[in-house]
Write a structure and sequence with these properties.
This protein is of the alpha/beta class and 481 residues long. It is built from 15 helices and 22 strands. α8 packs across α15 and α11 crosses α14.
């Protein structure tokens, strides 16, 4: 277990913190020590000034190979006021008028005294991991602008200071998982999953199989929700098994984990590229990946829609740039419906994709990991529907499936899948493909593909989970401790 040191430049506060609290001078002169245990530094010195003791504390910690909060990068970002965030009113658990009457909150290690600000505090800490942050709220009609600054413990009022000291003490005692208890593991992997998600990428059976496969490879896999991953640097890797999105904690956690040296699947670049169909289809055209005829529209004017009708036959498929599990995808049958749906979608996004409609009885899904085809499925269309998922039907939500070995997949389908995956990166992807008259057409690349017990693993069984966990093991070994 790593030793936690609190470095603080206020002698009186140092005496109040009943833990491993040392002065900056002590840290400067007495560390690193010979054969010292792994150390993490919680830098409570004033970091507001450039080249202050607080600045040098984090700089020296990084040079000495000690984990440190905040990092130099975070210190500089907070000093430059680049950490502001926007919170939509619909995501608030507090009325805007209440915020205006109490426009400042203090966040300590992701904790906040007023629980109504919990989600905002979590996000602020994820994006700006510093021990103490001051949030100042500026209310607008549609939400809040949140200004985030670092905060010095000595400048807080007594009540808030007592709250922060309590959090810091509790943090040191309880929040860090303990290694070496029970069975020994070489690596610790956090698997992000949301038990409340209606259509998760993996069901309970699959999540359990990932845990068992990890154990066989010396990886302790802990299934955790987002709120338990405030201190992501406790882990060696992050495996995201929750549906990803850009303006979402999945992407923020992936960025934070990658910045702190964790092995991450899905990595932030993959999430960025896969979650936006504008990027994918532009890249498909550039890299000559076989795909359906697609155009982008930025307005619903008569001229734009007329050109679209000249280019496509009805029905036309309109897609939001971001979406998963067939959400945000609409089939329009005539000019009136095209105009109505295009206007609705453009109210949400600056660009909308228009795509030719191609009916098939099933879509191929090829699972690719690190440039290698791993599994294959045929997903059949939901009953009386044109997609594999029908979000308007509870009884016939999805169609049937076939799981096949990859060597039974037509060569042109497999080649298209691997070419599309290479556009995105070397992660774990599910490539959706339509096949007509011996030709393959890539629909999209999913950075967070469905892997469910009894579906995608129907052919490979437990070997599918072993293959994925083995890739984590390989990357962890290459990275080293």
């Amino acid at each position: 277990m790593k030793e936690t040191l609190f470095v603080i430049d206020d002698e009186q506060l140092r005496s109040q913190l009943r833990l491993n609290a040392i002065s900056f001078d002590t840290y400067l002169k007495d560390y690193p020590k010979l054969n010292e245990p792994k150390i993490r530094i919680i830098n409570l010195c004033d970091t507001g000034r450039y080249l202050s003791q607080g600045y040098y504390c984090s700089l020296l910690a990084e040079a000495r190979g000690h984990e440190v909060l905040p990092s130099i990068k975070v210190i500089n970002a907070l000093r430059a006021n680049t950490g502001n965030i926007w919170v939509d009113a619909k995501d608030l658990s507090i009325e805007l008028c209440d915020v205006e009457s109490n426009p400042v909150q203090v966040v300590c290690m992701g904790e906040v005294a007023d629980e109504r600000y919990r989600k905002i505090a979590d996000r602020a800490f994820q994006e700006n991991p510093a021990p103490i942050l001051q949030l100042r709220f500026y209310a607008e009609a549609s939400g809040l602008t949140v200004s985030i600054k670092s905060c010095d413990l000595s400048h807080l009022e007594e009540e808030l200071r007592a709250f922060c000291l309590s959090v810091l003490e509790d943090y040191s005692r309880k929040h860090w998982r303990k290694r070496g208890v029970g069975k020994k593991y070489r690596w610790e992997l956090a698997m992000l999953a949301n038990p409340a998600e209606l259509v998760p990428p993996s069901n309970k059976g699959a999540l359990s199989q990932f845990v068992k496969a990890g154990e066989k490879l010396g990886i302790r896999v802990q299934q955790l929700p987002a709120q338990e991953l405030r201190f992501i640097n406790q882990y060696d890797g992050l495996f995201i098994r929750e549906t990803t999105a850009i303006d979402h904690h999945t992407y923020r956690l992936a960025c934070q984990a990658e910045q702190q040296g964790l092995i991450v699947i899905d990595d932030p670049d993959s999430i960025l590229r896969c979650c936006n169909k504008v990027f994918l289809h532009d890249a498909f055209n550039y890299r000559k990946v076989p795909s359906l005829k697609t155009q982008f529209i930025s307005d619903a004017s008569s001229e734009t829609l007329s050109k679209l009708e000249e280019c496509f036959d009805f029905p036309i498929v309109l897609k939001m740039p971001e979406g998963s599990f067939s959400k945000g995808v609409f089939k329009v049958k005539d000019s009136a419906e095209l105009k109505r749906v295009a206007k609705d979608l453009l109210n949400e996004s600056a660009l909308v994709l228009a795509q030719e409609y191609l009916f098939t009885e099933y879509d191929w899904r090829i699972g690719v990991l690190n440039g290698r085809a791993l599994y294959a499925c045929r997903y059949y269309m939901a009953r009386n529907h044109w997609q594999i998922y029908n979000h308007g039907s509870k009884r016939y939500f999805s169609g049937g499936f076939d799981a096949l070995p990859t060597f039974e997949v037509p060569r042109h389908v497999l080649e298209a899948a691997l070419k599309a995956a290479a556009v995105v990166g070397s992660g774990l992807y599910g490539i959706d493909i339509k096949e007509v008259d011996g030709k393959a057409y890539v629909l999209e690349v999913n950075d967070n593909p469905s892997i469910e017990s009894g579906v995608e693993d129907k052919y490979l069984g437990k070997e599918l989970y072993m293959q994925i966990m083995s890739e984590f093991s390989r990357r962890l070994e290459l990275r080293g401790r």
